[in-house]
Amino acid sequence: MSRIRTVRGSRLATAGVAVTGTAALLAAALSPTAQADDRPTRSDTIESAGTVLAQRAAELGLTPAQETKVRDVVIDADGTRHVRYDRTYRRLPVLGGDFVLHLNPDGTYRGTSRATRSELSLAGVTPKVTAQKAADLAASLLRAAHLGETMKKLTAKPRLVVDALHGAPKLAWQTDAVAHDELGNPVGRTVLTDAATGDRIDAWDTLESASGDGKSLYSGTVALETTKSGSAYQLKDATRGGTYTGDAANKTDQCLLTVCLTRAPATVFSDADNRWGSGAASDRATAAVDAQYGTDVTWDYYKNVLGRNGIAGDGKGSFNRVHYGTAYNNAFWDDKCFCMTYGDGDGKVMGPLVSLDIAGHEMSHGVTSKTAALTYSGEPGGLNEATSDVFGTLVEFYAGNAKDPGDWLIGEKVVRSGLGREALRFMDKPSKDGKSADCWSEELADLDVHYSSGVGNHFAYLLAEGSGTKTINGVPHTSPTCDDSTLQGIGRAKLGKIWYRALTVYMTSSTDYAGARTATLNAARDLYGDDSAERKAVAAAWSAVGVA
Question: In sequence order, which residues have a C-beta less than 8 Å from that of residue 163 and are 6 or more positions away?
Fold first, then answer.
């Protein structure tokens, strides 16, 4: 058999496919049929997967021109294994080249989940369109997205990729255009350009947004784990991977594409008596309390409920930056710094964006990037945003905080009268925001991902809570179905477990809503059985939002 190369690490000669790994992910307690100590190790799993890849290379469309690299590993309690791979073609990254190899407990082949099944073969990898033309297109689209604003420090540098996300694989330029708006806040746009014709293939936002004890803005007085430093204390939590919160001093990052020349600071907050903030926005430590608390609760939810130890599953903490930019109406997760960043808002449309559900939302973008890596465009982008909305909501419920009780509204604590509605998004009936979709249609792919997420959000609400009208923690919710069916919910806990397993085991970068239906049905089957009430509820909830 022909050799298939790997990006780095050992190579198995003609008998196999060599693989290398990044951060390990161990999904525990998904099945009670085996003890954790009986499960195969990560290294054994990767070795078994390499053997299977070698045996089934032709079936999986792997050729000598391709290289594979392990992104993630999930090992079930019964020993069933799932190894997630990225691919390159002639050393070019393949968008949509990712796949998950599923193995039985004995290491034999069980199946695959593939972002694309198209044959990965190109006549050549020399572009006909210049990099400069691709850069010019990306810059013009960034300006168009911010019509009327003067862009400062605008830069765009393309990289050559193979696009397998949009039909037959083709050579393409992927260009990250970044700039600063009139207030100095960062803006960004990624543009995919056909390297043969110069036509735009796709474009999406670069920043994935949502838009001792301490007295917080939104959650009351909360307990915080801190670190003693000399005679003072730092807002740094050694019990949660060293997560900390720092002051960005109202500065912004100065980045040239993927290289940041300077970063806004993240000067760790310190305090003499280990009592943080005053509950007022005028105290800079108050927003820091919210951010640190949100990180703590999100960490605990993923670990205690889903068995995930940190965003990357490796026990390492991220960090927060608060007071970023000037009147910045946004919050975002950034893989490059492995950090959350929060603006203070302009006081008219939004206040400081450090609420509990937003913290859970942003950290969940990090989890998605380390697992399915759903493309931030079209239906996969809507699923990406829905994933963060779902887990941000579940984090809020998990906290059980009387000052910010759980509900199915996103960002209700941060909105101000200038927004004209009581929340950023409404998961029971997404169209209440005036733009989001309640039901699937062919036009969904043309919506911004924050609005196409409505279908996934609506599904999640129906699966957990059912249809009709009810009041949850004092908040009225009304959720009609798209097919006039009546549904009974299976509860938030089961929703979270099903969505998480689908995300980490079955979804890939190109998963659309039809694919999400399949992924969550597979997850429900794994967790509760093929003929279970839970699996039937998943099918009914997807049908209720028009995904058949």
Answer: 95, 96, 169, 170, 171, 172, 174, 192, 201
DSSP state of 28: -
HEC string of 221-286?
A: EEECCCEEECCEEECEEHHHCCEEEEECCCCCCEEECCEEEECCCCEECEECCCEECCCCCCCHHH
Q: Which residues are catalytically annotated?
A: 362, 450
pTM (predicted TM-score):
0.80
Q: What is the DSSP letter of 370?
A: H
Quote the distance between the C-alpha of residue 498 and its chain's center.
16
CB count within 10 Å of CB 170 equals: 17
pLDDT tens column, 307-319: 999 999 999 999 9
| Polymer length of the chain | 548
Q: What share of the chain is helix, strand, coil (3-state, %, to 5)?
A: 30, 25, 45
Dihedral sign computed on CA atoms, order 371, 372, 376, 379: negative
* Rounded CA separation 50/179 (Å): 42
Structure tokens given for 413: 């604590």
Please count the CA atoms within 13 angstroms of the CA of 39 that sit on its side-chain side: 26
Neighbours of 548 (CB within 10 A): 10
> CA-CA-CA-CA torsion for 533, 539, 543, 547, nearest 10 degrees?
160
Structure tokens at 546: 């028009």
Can you say whether residue 102 is alpha, beta or left, with left for phi > 0 and alpha for psi between -120 and 50 degrees?
beta
Identify the pLDDT of residue 257. Answer: 64
Which segments of the chain have a pLDDT < 70? 1-37, 148, 183, 185, 207-211, 257-258
